[in-house]
Automatic annotation (TrEMBL):
Keywords: DNA-binding, Transcription, Transcription regulation
Designated name of the protein: HTH-type transcriptional regulator GltR
Organism for this UniProt entry: Roseovarius litorisediminis
Annotated gene: gltR
Gene Ontology MF: a single term: DNA-binding transcription factor activity
Family: Belongs to the LysR transcriptional regulatory family.
Pfam families assigned to the protein according to its UniProt record, in alphabetical order: HTH_1 (PF00126), LysR_substrate (PF03466)
Gene3D superfamilies: 3.40.190.290, Winged helix-like DNA-binding domain superfamily/Winged helix DNA-binding domain
Protein's GO biological process: DNA-templated transcription
Domain HTH lysR-type: 1-60
Amino acid sequence: MDAQWDDLKIFLAVARRESLSGAGRVLKIDPATVGRRIARLEAAYGAPLFAKSPTGYALTDAGQRLMGHAVRVEQAIEDAAEEMMGKTGGLSGQIRIGAPDGSANFLLPQVLEKISDDNPDLDIQLVALPRVFNLTRREADMVVAVSPPNAGRLTVQKVADYKLHLAASRKYLEKYPPINTLADLSGHRIVGYIPDMIFDKELDYLSETGVERVNLASNSVSVQINWVRQGSGIGIVHDFAIPWTQGIEKILTDEISLTRSFYLVRHADDRRLERLNRFAAALVEGMRHEVARLEALT
């Protein structure tokens, strides 16, 4: 028996929210009804689609296989609606992007605002998390990453290089001993990542400075930048974030200048979806322009 689209919508909601109650809130239906519809879908396919785990509902192998098909159906329906309603000039529906919190806080808001201005019928969701996103589980439609993944059915596009430097607030530099060489850092308070929570090797900035101790550590770039901004210590800061923070200046630029890259990662099956292709093109163009604009201000 072919699954009806309504059942597939419920399946997608449970897969993305990992719970019946979470899916019910999104769909505005009772969790018990969600459970019954999932049971009906599993009976139709003759296989369990979810396994109950301590963290919620996890996709089984059969569920993983259905996920890709369900997403393509979802995107095809949205594409058809745009075309039939005469909205081919602009995007509509909902698109979710996952990104590390540094780019999510200081780079993507203005890029996505421009895309929203150009596509008033489009709902954009930006999920900022200091971890790797799982596109196989469809946690997002696409992800901005700081290193290209080496596993999974994914497509990867390099977006742009970006710069990072040691930085401190003018208040801090006036209060503490001068910093003329990397060796001088040993007498200063250092801000950085919690070492065992660095989720990507490209974020291990301080290893290139020779610093062994991080006095103030957080898994959030935004927290780190706030510590630097308020004069709590010295840290590695994205150049594109500096124009958004008052009183921060780069230091030791001749000794430490880091280059990293952003990549746009998508599920391989989405290459055929014109709607997501158009959004991805606008996102890449906007990010390249904004990185260049902000870095030119530092």
